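#struct-help
A.M.: can someone run this one for me? Single chain, 408 residues.
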Amino acid sequence: MEHSRGPGRAAVTGAEPAAEAPIDGDVGARPADREGGYTMAEMLVGLVIISFGLLALLDGIILAVHTQRERVQRAAAIRVATTASEDARRIPFSSLAALVGAPQTSTKTVNNTTYQTTTTETLCAVTDGAEACTTPGSGSPSAVRVKVDVKWTSGSKQHSVTVGTSVTDASQALLTGTGTGTISNLLGGSATSGTSVTLGNLTVSPTSVAVTSANNPTSAVTVTMTAVGLTATTSIPLTWTDDTGSHQTTMASAGNGTWSVSVPASSITKAPASGANTATVAFTATAPTGNGIQTANLTLVTQPTFTGCTVSPNPIVFQLLTTKLSAATTLTCTVKAVSSSDTVKVSYATPSSTQVSNLTTTDGGATWKIVLAAGTQLHSGLSTTFTFTATRASDSATATTTVNVLQA
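D.P.: on it. Structure tokens below:
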């Protein structure tokens, strides 16, 4: 039944009343374009922020790669310059003096980088200091100063390193003690005027050292040499070559006529040849006397290594209702980088303690053996663990391995 609509009255029908339109500013109001997520403007802002972050990260990576490349190139340039300097020192003095005034140039490519080497010789009086060079007098001892410049280009930049040395015609007389004069070098040292120069032996301490898995010594190496007739301000170059190339440092006066330097373990890398347990690094000290060269060797020894251990019989057999061996049991190990003067021990548990026994070798240290007699008592359980330890006497380097054997 319908009702008429009077003034101000809505008609009563079966239809639902229409929803009211939201009023601007209403808390419940939400733009239609936000119902699906972020707006286009928000996405663009996010992309811009991410782009700036990625660009900053890329710049950091490029800088790190560039810096590492420059370090590698500089190290190679130093090796090239040092090699050229050492080559010059091997030339007889008369031949080296003939090169004065005519620089020699050459190029060498290392790891796709070309290095240009310029070697310049200058004739000076041996009495000159490191910063001076005067024409030697007639009949006076003279020295040829050799300067090696190495240049290379990285990207758009040019780089260079310089190495200097000096060779004197009076060096042999001074070494034999029959001559007098003063010797100077580009490193700033000199011999004492009016005295001869006598070089003592070059020594390395320790003379033998174990190497790590990276083929570096397990400790720093100290290189020492004695010399008579050199002033305390003299620096003596020390060079060596290993698996990473040629290296150079300087030995400084330690007082009492002794020159010394500590070479960090990380500066020496030498792997033994395949099948060998040792490798050798030769150090060369070149005093500022032309022929004043001394050498000493460092022996690098691989770490002791077990290549295999066996227990026979396996499983081990006990006497009935006891933990005593019913038969003799042989323990055998093969070991690398030890000798018969070193020790290999085995430890295993007994009912009351841990037993430690020595293995013996009959082939110089390659194979080690011990026989546990029948009746030897072990601990009770499902298995027995034998722990083997090799110790090298020369440097206390050790290796350890275990063998777990079932009990029957």
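A.M.: thanks! The chain has a mean pLDDT of 80.
D.P.: also worth noting: The radius of gyration is 40 Å.
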